[in-house]
What does this fold into?
Amino acid sequence: MLRRLTPVLLTLLVVVLGVTALAARPETGAPRRTADFVVLAGVAGLRWDDVDPQTTPTLWRMAQQGSIGSLSTRSAHRPTCPVDGWLTLGAGSYAAWNGSRQQDACPPVGVTIEQPDRIGANLPDQESVVLHNQERLPWGAVPGSLSESVRCSVAIGPGAAVAAARPFGRVDRYAPKLPDDPAGLLGSCVLSIVDLGTVAGDDRVTRAAEARRVDAALATVLAARPARSLVMVAGVSDTETPSRLHVAVADGPGWEGGLLTSASTGREGYLQLVDLAPTALAALGRPMPERLFLGRPAIRVDGRPDDLAAAIAAPADADREAAAQRRVAGWFFALLALAQVALFVTVLPLLRRARRLAGPHSPPPVSRRVVATVELLLIAAALAVPAALLADAVPWWRVDHAGWWFGLVTVALIVAATALVRLAPGHDRTLGPLGAVAGLASLVVGADVLSGARLQLNGVVGYSALEGGRFSGLGTVGLGVFLAGALLSAGWLAQRFRRAWRPMVVVTVGGTAVVVVGSPYLGSDPIGAVALTAGVAVAAAISTGGWLTVSRLVWAAMAGLALTIGYAVVDLRRPAEERGSLGRFLAALGDGTGGLTVHRSSTANFETLVNSPLTLLAVVGALLVWFALLQPWGGLMRLFGIYPAIRAAMAGTAVAAVIGGLLGGSALDVAGAAAALVVPMAALASLRVLDHSTDRTQPGAGRQRGDGPAGPHAGDAPDGGPGGGGTTAADEHPRADRPPPDGAGTRDAAPADDAAPADDGAPADDGAPADDAAPAGAEGGSGDRSTAAGDTAGTADGEAGDDGDGADSEAGGDGDGVRSAGERAAGAGGARGAGVPAARAPESATPTSTEVTTG
It folds into this structure.
């Protein structure tokens, strides 16, 4: 009864952990009314490196008094050109001007502004722009939503007219340029939007001259600002490619001397352009429109350095890092994909020749030096992404030729990490490198998340603030590496425990990973948490052996669904402005606008699938696994049969990576990042398993089960146990050419003429049938020359038994070096199918060949 309830209890445990992690949200402080008037002053192209006490003294003083941040100017057009930036400011959502424009360019766009009277203005193209955003773009933005939320608004300058125009094109009050004394104009409405000009180009002298003109206009605005007003200065757009981070300053009551942030970024010191509209309404105490802005109101937080120069240096440095990251990330992932493809091609002939066959016609073995070199390259390839993440701890973007410096730092870290794995205890075991690499990868990503994910922000393998998709927590690549590392670590650790304890080990490690991924304080990725929950449920279900049956897959799906429903219920009970992505999506489904979210996700999936180099990693990794590693000569089926917990971990990784990528809008990027870690380790472990395929096993008479869940001989334990068998050379001496330890004998595979000739089913010399010539836990050398059917049988893991490992579970615990019942069946079946005589059973306590002893 308890065994049948175990999947239910473990599923509930994972779900409870996940809902608990997702439901807790950090205190952000609800925005409150702080002003009677709001003035939004925009400057196209203004960056923090344009601001200094000499060039922009007015802006410098304003930043010293108020709160500052880096502004991501994402819009519905890439890059965000000035007209798109102004339109997005007024819409509170990602918007773009209509018309045929090529991507990655900002051609001049003429905006027609009519002034039928001397009070306001009219934009005749506004209605077509609104229709374009509603029907042609996936964000459903409504240009003019900000001005529609207040009774009266003022626009000064052409860019401000684009932002302040109502959806039907009317601007309430308009001035084509800033008057010498704008006090009356700024005080006529609660909301004023001012176009201060543009700072463009790469020439520092030209930019400095334009910044001075902008600063002079800002001085005029500040001198005429109404009493109890909030003034915000923002670099509302780019002016050319590539995109950059821009200036954001807020000055007014309640905004003194801090950093700006919002719920849309979750990162101190960062805002989005879409946050400005809800910030203005929140400061005025006005309600948000019925169709919520994509942005969230900005708030002030402490933590800014007292020295303004030091405070401004941080966002300026972040802008340089983000710009460098964009240039380097593309070629890094392209080189990683090409390197892993070349390495996989190199591994194929080694897999074909890795199995050492008996007899004069066996192909010559591959040089040990070559195999050792390939193993090190596989370890290095698996550690490339974690090393690239660590490389961002070094400020390589501050020097010339930043890409080369990043490459040198990353290569140095890969070499150091590979040496660490090579020198780690247990490296010579079959699963030694896999466990070390998985643990190291999950440790690197997990430590970064626990420390605020500072390495992922604007990092080469992280996410860019320029993209505006994520500013905190786990990114797409980090999620793939972390879930793969966590599940492989769980499988490696579970393999060291007895079968009955393995699901609990997997749930413990996997549940901890779910909390790290899903908690808003840490990974802040509810979709990733749901996907990882499904993966953990799959891994726990088959960690004791057996196939991924429909019932087990249903349990995994139910775990993910239960977590989703539990979090949705909690999220929907929050106020609308505090909901997470899942709550907003369900609310959108309720009001009939959920189709936009589905459309955006499907569009993002398609674009990522076509353009991302991680797609190549995922596809090539899947092809290598399916057409090579899972073939009878590939070794992975044999590895799965001997180590069912590793098979469970890899199956769970595949499930979690695919679900996380598709639901998160990143297609195969999560799977590609996971494959970059898992596939090299699978290839390495397969090589080692094939290399030991002819090892023989000593009967372990008199060996006793260990006490506790792991027993005294727990290690990379194949299924079987000390109560039912002895020790294989695969675990005591994984490399056949290595000398045995002091005090241990050597053991060679028995030659073919040492085996008693017996027909299928004929008794051996001692009267035992040929199938049972070796006692439980022992395996003849000839039995490993199995055919495809033999290797496949070795992976069944005792399907006949309810507990997954069949007769193997009854043979004993999980001691070192004993192969599974499936492997023993594979050996016997292979011997019969190939016509090779079975090994003679030992007739006495003295074995017929020299055996390894474990002391």
In short: The longest strand covers residues 37-44. Residues 347 and 374 are 8 Å apart (CA to CA). The radius of gyration is 32 Å.
